[in-house]
Known about the structure:
The protein is α+β, with helices and mostly antiparallel strands. Helices cover 24% and strands 40% of the residues. It has a single domain (14-202), classed as Hypothetical Protein Pfu-838710-001 (Beta Barrel), CATH 2.40.320. The protein is built from five helices and ten strands, in the order E-H-E-E-E-E-E-H-E-H-E-E-E-H-H. The strands form two sheets. It has an eight-stranded antiparallel β-sheet with strand order 1-10-9-8-2-3-4-5.
Amino acid sequence: MAELKIGEISKPRFEFRSFGQCFCEAHKRMARLSVPVPEKVWERSSDEIYIISAKNDINNTKIRDGKMDIKTFVQSVDGLEQWNPLMKGEFPISREVLEKEVFPAFMVEMPELKKDTYTYEEFIAMVKACPDLAAVRVHKQRFGYMVNNTICEVGNVLINGAKVVTINSESTEIEDIKKTIADCGLEGVENINYLQAIKRVIGMSDKPLANE
């Protein structure tokens, strides 16, 4: 994958990503254009829970292996999105973190918190009790590539059991991503993130995915 020079400050990455039913031609081109990548990224699978809020599109919250990760949208440049980490936490999680970081990130009304710490199960029960929140099961099977020095992947994604395909390219260098989009035949394809794609699949948004 992309090398970072020792002592060099890591620049924030920008990302192109889309979701649809099939990116077969683009996937074929991406695989053929890719330089060899480490075996550990040839194929990876994971099970995650995304917490989706009807009130917010700027904070992306997911839970994997008992750890919560919240990223926040920073800016869009030339249609490419930049996200930065907002919070990382583990279960059981403290009331203070829920009050100060987690529920404010969802932009929903704060539930009444009577305990000092909450287990994963208790947290999910609070999410399910809130009409503006949804806990969505996401299974990812991802295939990694590297094209034009950008980190790329094609993934088979199950969103509450509904299968969609995602394709992406990310890098600190915007021009490299644009070249990859062109080389893979993805020009004009909508750039959307996991948050937006999940909302469309579960009916929280009525927009279609790409190539539907």
